[in-house]
Amino acid sequence: MNISHMRAFLEVATSGSFQLASERLHITQSTVSARIKVLESQLGQTLFLRKREGSELTLAGRQFMRFAHTAVRAWEQARQEVGLPEELSAMISLGIQMNLWDQITPAWIELMQEQHPHVGTRVTADYSASLLEQLSSGLIDLAITYIPRQQADLICEPLIDDQLILVSTEPRKVTRHWMPDYIYIDWGDEFRAAHNLAYPETRAPKLSVGLGMLGLDYILKFGGTAYFPARSVEALLQQGTLHRIDEAPTFQRPAYLIYPRVPSDAQLLETAISLLKHVVAGITRSV
Fold it and tell me: Where are the transmembrane segments (predicted)?
């Protein structure tokens, strides 16, 4: 299958319009239609239902979406790595759960560039499920996720176990009831389940976010209460900017390092893992 055909498919699927897809791809609408027809002929399936108000994916089209995404991403990655500049001899790609980005990634990149300047680094911040899909597809070399993956061709190791603590911008006592200034940060499936058990009568918070950095920025600016990893707010607690709510329930948030059992470049992967573990050891020692 042609990559340009799959790009056309993805644009129509995203926009719901052959016309918008043609404008984004800078080609004619008839060319977009022709590329979709070729895909449908090769797959033996209709991918879109054409309607007056736009185009809608069929069941086959929805099933084809993830394969098209994988193929286009793999092609883009191949173009980058095959076209390495002369000063680089290799490329390593790390996928990291977005809530762990700020604590781990900058220090790891700095060590890689200092100790292995001939190696290029590529980092993807995403949610755990997407990272596992990219790892299984070979689009990244290793991943740090909140979701463990037991799979014959992958190695899954515990990397860091955060304790999530309840903090507030004002000193206060613990309560199991609804807090009007509580900001709910989604730390993943295990946290959601444990949080529901700990606070069974809690009403919906006024604000929910899926990224810890956004929640922290919000309460520092507007005030509030939320759960954060103890290590990430330690300095703010010492400064008195935040206050830990004593006797509030705490939750564990483990993260895992996952990588192929048989990598394409074992030595390079071992180097990347060694420096990641060095960074994490420094983080845990500092708390």
Answer: none
Cα–chain center distance at 199: 27
* Alpha-carbon span 154 to 162, nearest angstrom: 23
What is the number of H-type helices and E-type strands within the chain? 10, 11
- How far apart are the C-alpha atoms of 144 and 91, rounded to whole Å? 18
Tokens of 223: 């005030």
Digit-coded pLDDT (tens) for 104-134 = 999 999 999 999 888 888 898 888 888 888 8
Phi, psi of 4 (to 5 degrees): -65, -30
Query: Is 3.40.190.10 the CATH number for 88-158+255-286?
Result: yes
pLDDT digits (tens, 9 = 90+) for 228-252: 999 889 999 999 999 999 889 999 9
43 within 8 A of 64, measured Cβ to Cβ: yes
Q: Looking at the domain 3-81, which fold is it?
A: Arc Repressor Mutant, subunit A (1.10.10)
